[in-house]
């Protein structure tokens, strides 16, 4: 087995980790926007 399998695996792991982090941040942002909207609607 040559080193390219490890290189591709490392890039894939980095890409998946970055995508998961971005998705989690996006969901958190949407939750915060919804909470802020509910607060402004109460006024």
Tell me the number of helical segments per DSSP (H or I, 4 or more residues long): 1
Kindly state the mean pLDDT as a whole number?
A: 95
| Structural classification | mainly alpha
Major sheet description: none
Order of helices and strands: H
- Please give the radius of gyration in angstroms: 19 Å
Q: Report how far the terminal alpha carbons are from each other.
A: 64 Å
- What is the helical fraction, as a range of percent? over 70%
| Shape field | rod-shaped
What are the low-pLDDT stretches, counting only 5+ consecutive residues below 50?
Answer: none
**Overall strand count:** 0
Beta content: under 5%
Quick structural gist:
This protein has 43 residues and is an all-alpha fold.
Characterization of this structure:
The protein has one helix spanning 4-42. The chain has 43 residues and is mainly α. The chain is rod-shaped, with a radius of gyration of 19 Å. 0% of the residues are buried. The mean pLDDT is 95.
Offer a few descriptive terms.
43 residues, mainly alpha, 91% helix, rod-shaped
């Amino acid at each position: 087995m040559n080193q390219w399998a490890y290189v591709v695996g490392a890039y894939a792991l980095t890409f998946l980790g970055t995508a998961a982090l971005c998705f989690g941040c996006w969901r958190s942002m949407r939750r915060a926007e919804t909470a802020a909207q509910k607060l402004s609607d109460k006024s």
